[in-house]
Amino acid sequence: MRPTARRILSVERELPDTYTLEIEPPGSDWSFLPGQYTMLYAFGIGEVPISISGDPSDATRIVQTIRAAGAVTDALVAKVPGDFVGLRGPYGTAWDTKAGEGRDVLIIAGGIGLAPVRPLVLDVLNHRDRYGNVTLLYGARSPRDLLFADQLQEWRGRFDLEVLITVDQAEQTWRGPVGVVTSLIGRSSFDPDAAVAYVCGPEVMMRFTIQELERKGFSDDRLYVSMERNMKCGIGLCGHCQLGRFFICKDGPVMTCAQMAGSCWIREV
Amino acid sequence: MSEVFDVLVNQPFFAGMTDEQVRAVAKSAALVSFDEGSVIFVEGGPARYTYLILEGDVALTLRTQEHGSKIIQTLHRGEFVGWSWMYPPYRWNFDANVQTDVKAVQFDGPKLKKISLADPELGYTMMRRFTEVIVNRMQALRIQLLDVYSTFR
Amino acid sequence: MRETLVIDQEGVDALIHTLTDRGYEVVGPTVRGQTILYDTITSTDDLPVGITDRQEAGTYRLETRDDGALFGYVVGPQSFRRYLTPPGNVFWKGVLTDDGFETVELPEPPRLAFFGARPCEVAAMQVQDEVYSAVGDPVYLGRRGRSFTVAVNCSEPAPTCFCDSLGTGPGVSNGYDIAMTEVVDGESHYFIAEAGTDEGSEVLALLPSRDPLDEELVHARRMVVRAAERMGRHLDTDGLKEVLYGNIENPYWDEIAKRCLSCTNCTLVCPTCFCSTVEDHLSLDGSEAERARPWDSCFTLDFSYVNGGPVRPSPGPRYRQWLTHKLASWQDQFGSIGCVGCGRCITWCPVGIDITKEAAAIRERDVRRVVVGASSAKEGTE
Fold first, then answer.
1. How remote is the C-alpha of C28 from its chain's centroid?
2. A-contacting residues of C 216-255, CB under 8 Å?
């Protein structure tokens, strides 16, 4: 649990409270898998788990998207290029991209949940020929709250990726769908008997998405979710992130619904 | 008439209903289209029809003094627009704005009711399927209401 | 088979001195404020000589005994966990540099001799060995690896004890350097001492001792067997994991919650509980930072906090989390049950909630026993 000091290469404001930091990797052999996270440390203030949101094929920088929601994240997003952060990791399980090979791929994200799935989208696009239809469904609060809007725009222009975006509230100037992200599921093209779904967002959004996908015929071993729990140590030592027999920090965050065996439906488990 | 029937039998909503039933419902229906930017109905106006969207996108909007026009929900291919024809006072609760050119089946509410009363079994089937749509949409709206993507702090 | 010798109180003193001379900080039982706690000891004078403890659910009292026994008590609230993962232990330190910050090496951990470890305590350390080895924790492993264990077998279990049903006592079978059985028999007061490791043999050889008589060995062994027969409580572990996994939604958890105060006592006295939190501190001038590891408890609201609120805001799910982790999911995670039957959580619960009773109560109310006919009404489709 020793952080190492790393330089910040750039800081970009994505949304009023959300920033993307590019951090110098500890070495040329540093790599991560889509879905993993690091522990970022603001010297003397504290440490938080932050998912990696960059391209897994780019070894020159560690890209992390942070929403300022407390003392530590506030300190992290206040950094400027040249400052340093403490880094540990990468930690946790990855989106199982192997499971999606030869199949239709459905990626569903809500809100800031797009950050942990961006490496997955990029990885799938880097090896596009391995997959069938690839669909990204994204739900956000409002058009102003769309994360990575430029990149979404770029992805929408591709012929080999279907991107559907919905928001919960919009002014009349918005030309896209308004409604929950599950309402997009019926509008996208995939074969539920052979597709793999990767879901990341607030827990309630994931619950309803799972329910909708199961109704569409998805089996729970092809449904991947990224769980959120209180992760303090990242290595399965501190106990805070326990869910049943799992420590989400090391047995997760990415898990299949089959692994969880319905435990995400139980109150306060 | 038979054109409407051909359209309806291919819609998932009518799957599992007999040809006879679909034919009966088709008697209340007509094919219509709306151009982008036009309005299908406006809040407060008399509500007589319901629409099954075949193509295009519709936004239900609500005008507010404080926040301008807000889109409550958008509806798309295969979805119904409009329930206010069912119960008094038969007035629309929202504006229905056409986001992209729409082709739709327009059902005449009073005629649908008459058909349903004449054939209660068909009436029940239609009502059951309508309520399924309404319940699903209500549940989705509840999630939308939760504002799940907001930051707590 | 290693040697078994007989030593007397003088020999026990010699043992403490020998360990101290060999560079160990000898940590053993001593009376502090009406309680037997662990602290550094230098001779048998520091031990709770002629003192016993009376324990029941929610009750702990010290009383005197007339036989001058050194180990005539059962267990106090503390376990050696306190020394292996000291609460608030600073395990990382950094100072600002031109290139950010760098790690400052911390002093070597002390060499500790755990003196008077009950069999359940030895078992608890073995349970924690699995937990901390799984993550390669330098704090625990650094201390544990250099430690020496003097175990003492039990002959007088408390009513709260249930080690026998878990196979973790009342006699110690491994995991010690030296194991002793104290015998007070009329005028004679002696200790059967047995080495469990090479270092144990080495130390034992330095003590004034004699060979045991056969009847002394038999007597000592019989005392431990009798202790097993007088165990105050019992935990039925047969199929317990499946019972608990199958009863996550049993309404009985909320019944327990009506009594549970969420005071965290059970987790703090438990010798296997390992939950901790991470605290970062900064010096006033901002140039030095420390990372400390206070103990934490799954009974607090903060414990499961994620952005928006705690995952387990109610006491019922928190008690369920604790008990189900101890007795069920621990098995999946670390290959053994997370309880050694020491009974501390029963004694030190201010309202006397009893883990053995509650586990049995869940088993009795097993919701998996489907009432015939209850699920026969099928919901229709179309």
1. 14
2. 248-249
